[in-house]
Amino acid sequence: IKFDTNLEGLKETAPIQPAIKFIPEWFKKMPMQYVEKLSNVELGVGAAMSSTKLCPGMIEYFKQGYVVPLWSDLLIDISRTNNELKYAWEFADRSYELKEHLHSQFLDYAPIHAQQNIHMIFKLINQWRVKLPKGYSMYQLPMHYHYDDNFHVLPGIFPGDSYSELHSQLCITKLGQFVIERGTPIAHYVPYKRES
Questions:
Q1: What is the 3-state secondary structure (H, E, C) of the chain?
Q2: The model's pTM
């Protein structure tokens, strides 16, 4: 697997890294064991219990794939008055860009609760390119377990042996003005060998 960019300085300022380097801080702070405070029929109060920090499924999940961090501070400003949506965005480094995904391309057809929780979808124009061995693709996943209130990316699949661009669909889930800082993990990519 090869990640590359023609943009000078990007490899130093916001490199793609193995996912294991992006374990959420709250998970790192979690104890491996705790003392049960509630009544437990089988074990009773005060029993030593294992936390999910020892769960093999979560440990293996954090070891899989790579994470793309945001390459520049990004200011988002979204407001809604009645049915009118207004938005603006600006990267600190103006050489980067977003493109709007119209509601008629996706959100208008999503369930009502999704329409109420996602205010805007932008296409992040990513300067990174990927090359995978023949027969391999990559899952694009949101940053599960990071619980960001401002955004998440839509899941998808990149056929990385025939398509190199890593553009992410950024769902904005918060109204108002806020900044997504450079280095914030945006998307999790997990390569896999296609079955057919």
A1: CEEECCCCCHHHHCCCEEHHHHCCHHHHHCCCEEECCCCCCCCCCCCEEECHHHCHHHHHHHHCCEEEECCCCEEEEEEEECCEEEEEEEECCCCCCEEEECHHHCHHHCCHHHHHHCCEEEEECCCCEEECCCCEEEEEECCCCCCCCCEEECCEEECCCCCCECCEEEEECCCEEEEECCCCEEEEEEEEECCC
A2: 0.89
